[in-house]
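User: For a reading group we're discussing how well predicted structures match intuition. Take Alginate lyase domain-containing protein. Before you show the prediction, I'll give you the sequence so everyone sees exactly what went in.
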Amino acid sequence: MKDAYERLIEEAELAMKDGPFSVADKGMTPPSGSKNDYMSISPYWWPDESKEDGLPWIRHDGKTNPASKTAETDSKRIGHFTRSVRALSLAYYFSQDEKYAKQGIEYIRTWFMNDTTKMNPNVNYGQGVPGRAEGRRGGIIDTRTLADRMLDSIAILSLSPAWTDKDEQQITQWYSDYLDWLIVDDLSGGPKGEAAAMNNHGTWYDFQVASIAYFLGNDALAKQMVQKGKMRVDTQFEKDGSQPHEIERTRAYHYHYFSLDPLVGIAQIGDKLGIDLWHYENKKGGSLAQGIQLMATYQDPASDWPYTAKDNPRRVERMTPIYLKAGVAMEKHEWIKLATETDFSRFTVKKNLAEVWAQRDIELLYPKQ
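Assistant: Thanks. Here is the predicted 3D structure of Alginate lyase domain-containing protein, as structure tokens, for the group to look at:
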């Protein structure tokens, strides 16, 4: 716990200096003409070298185009913003040092509230592809961090004296408007939108809606999305726990993990609302538990992952919070042991932040049995 806490403070001290963050800082201007609109370029698309102008771009799954990760767009910026506020909020919670709360709150005001710097509550121009689309439904995967990192952070920071009634009103209004966009826009809630995606994208959409609805006190909508999690189990899991939609990807191990992560989050929301997603089985015998067990079977990096080889070396430590959360919920002590006995000593804040956060989940944030 001491090691995890020290790494948290190290990250929070870096976060104190890194912001503030604003969508208005990007170099490119969205088709709307407003830099307040979020904008990103789809990471696996590249110029067509056979065309003089490179248009339309073509897809190379699993191969990230560096142009999608620059300051010209917002995809790196939103990740940096949300992880910084997450670090500051938890540093405030555990240290009770108001400096972390004040900085985190200022970052939130810049991103969500101030007229000149705020993000408009839509993802109309997310993951655009030059020559093909100004924005695509897959852009909503970019904003998952506005739910899975930000909502708990806001709840924690709202305990600070620096958080005002106006802050509360404005953040509630922003998320209410964003939830409305998630439900009604063709890219998101429409019949061909992200809500209908059959792989991890669809589950992350469901998680955003469920968690924001719960955050806003809309329990009826949150319950509906948890129930929809059963459809995700029906359509995504085989009896052995494998996920065919993710096996198709060039990084099948990563996407198996990346699909389980939001579904576990939905199951945790279900716990709060009296709906059990943990033990639901589809007609094939597939389940969330089977999906997690498949990953546990191959937790040893030396084991031979049966699908694509492009994940090697596999980042198996990222799965450990899932083992702990599910292990506690389902009384699977072997999963809890797998998580708590993982060695995180070689990882650093500056090079291995995802693994450092996995350790933080295990040592600081979730109860162990």
